[in-house]
Write a structure and sequence with these properties.
The chain starts with 10 loop residues before the first helix and ends with a helix. It is built from four helices and five strands. By secondary structure, the protein is of the alpha/beta class. The longest helix is centred in the N-terminal third of the chain and has 17 residues. It has a single domain, classed as P-loop containing nucleotide triphosphate hydrolases (Rossmann fold, 3-Layer(aba) Sandwich).
Amino acid sequence: MSGQRKYADTLWECYYEDADAVVFVVDAAESDAAVEEARVALTEALVRAPKASKASKEGKKTKKRPPLAVFANKSDVPAARTASELASAMRLTGESDALAGRAWHVGACCARTGEGVREGIRWVLEKT
């Protein structure tokens, strides 16, 4: 699902409740304003979303926030932010309601070549 603002109040909530993970792709070579817009959209979605229900090994329902994987796409572009720089720009490095109780990872990738994609998906699978 795209991250367009027009979907913020409708589709996010429909898909998030049963999600095992959240994967968010950001253009790491985009302007500061565009990265800020992505940060706001992600934060709003994560803060508003309910915690997912998971069945424990004993069959009991428990509440757990699904892990968050942020892909810093276009890492092959010379002006692109590193994964660390993108994490800072998106304010994923400190305490926040969006990250509380949630495993998260920011990794550089290039969708065009596939570099970094496998590693990011592997991280998601390890956390779910």
